Amino acid sequence: MNMILKLGNVDRRILYILLTLVLVVPLVKPVGLPISIGGYTTKVYNRLEQLKPGDRVIMDFNYGVDSKPELESQAISILKQFLKKDIRVIAVAFTPQGPMIADNVLKVYEKAGREYGKDYCNLGYLAGGETAMGAFIRDPVKACPVDFRGRQSKDLPIMQGVTTGSDCQMLIYFTTGYTAEWIRQAGPTKIPIIGCVITVLGPAQEAFTQSGQLQGLLVGMRCGAEYELIIKEPGPAVAAMDAQSMGHLLFILFIIFGNLALILEKRSRMAGK
After folding, report:
1. What is the DSSP string of 158-218?
2. What is this structure's pTM?
3. Do 49 and 130 sit in the same domain of this protein?
4. Residues 256 and 207 in one domain
5. CB-based contacts of 54: which residues, under 8 Å, 6+ apart?
6. How many domains does the chain have?
7. Same domain for 257 and 156
8. N or C: which end of the chain has fewer CB within 10 A?
9. CA pair distance 265, 3, nearest whole angstrom
C-alpha cells in the first residue's frame, strides 16, 4: 500500500524523465513490438506489384517538413518497392516545399545508382492548385517545361512519349491537404490513383476508396510502419510506432497508479476518522 501511495504522489519531474526515456530509447534502438499489417496497406502493396518494369508513375509530394513523420516513410518504402521492379518515377509538387521534399526522398534512387532523367526526375513546383493539377494531367511537359534542376522536360528520356498524364501507369499523391482535387482532375483520364494522407484526412478519403476512385489508400505513420514491414525493411516509422506504443503504455500506468493512490488515500482518511 505504501508503495502505491508513493507512486501516486511521485514528483512530476521524475515522470517527465521516465516519459523522455520511454520515447527516446525505442527511437534509438527499436524494441520491435508486433504490428499487424492492415488490409489497406496490403491492397496498396499488391496493386503496385502489378506494375511492370519500365512503367512510369507520377508521384505528387504535397507536404512539408512538419508532416514528414507521417508521410515520408510511406514514400520511401514505395520507392524501395519500385527499385526492385525497375519502375520509373516522375515527381511533381503543387506546394512550394514539395520539390525539396521530393529531391530528398528521391535520393533512394540516386543512392541505388539510378540515372536522373532516365529512371526518375523531379519536375518541381507548379503553382495554381487544382487548376495546375488539371493542366499537368492534360499535358505534363507543357505544364512543367523546365524541371527542378533547370533542364528542359521535353529532353528528359523519361518524358519521351508522355503527352498526357494517362501515358503513365499510376498516380500516387502524398498530401496534408487534398481530399478530392486529384479525383476530379485525374479521375476522368482513367489513370489509377493511390492516396497517401496524414491521419486526420483518412476519413475524407474513405468514400473514394469504397467507390473505386482510389485504387488504394495509406493513412499516417501507422501505414508507413506497416509498409516498412511488408517490404521487409523496418525503418523510422517502425521505431516511431514503438516509441508511441511505449508512451501510451506509460500513460496508462500513470493513470492506474494515480487512481489507486487516490482511492487508498480516501480510505486511509476515512479509517483515521
Report:
1. GGTT-SSGGGSSEEEEEESS-SSHHHHHHGGGT--EEEEE-GGGHHHHHHHHHHTSSSEEE
2. 0.85
3. yes
4. no
5. 86, 87, 88
6. 2
7. no
8. C
9. 12
What single letter denotes the amino acid at residue 151? R
Measure the CA–CA gap between 178 and 183, rounded to whole angstroms: 10
Q: What are the pLDDT digits (tens) for 217-237?
A: 999 999 999 999 999 888 877
| Domain membership of residue 268 as a residue range | 2-31+239-272
Q: Could you tell me if 140 and 90 are in contact, meaning their C-beta atoms sit under 8 angstroms apart?
A: yes
Alpha-carbon gap, residue 166 to 183, rounded angstroms: 14
| Nearest-5° Cα angle at 230, 228 to 232 | 70
Q: What's the Rg (C-alpha) of the chain? A: 24
Q: Which DSSP string do the residues of 56-111 spell out, in sequence order?
A: EEEEEEE--GGGHHHHHHHHHHHHHHHHHHT-EEEEEESSTTHHHHHHHHTHHHHH
Q: Is 124 helix (H, G, I), strand (E, B) or coil?
A: strand
**In this structure, are 20 and 149 located in the same domain?**
no
* Cell numbers linked to 14: 521524475
How far is it, in rounded angstroms, from Cα 4 to Cα 167? 66
Short-list 88, 98, 83, CA closest to 133: 98
Do 103 and 218 sit in the same domain of this protein?
Answer: yes
**What are the pLDDT digits (tens) for 71-95?**
999 999 999 999 999 999 999 999 9
3-state secondary structure of 115: coil
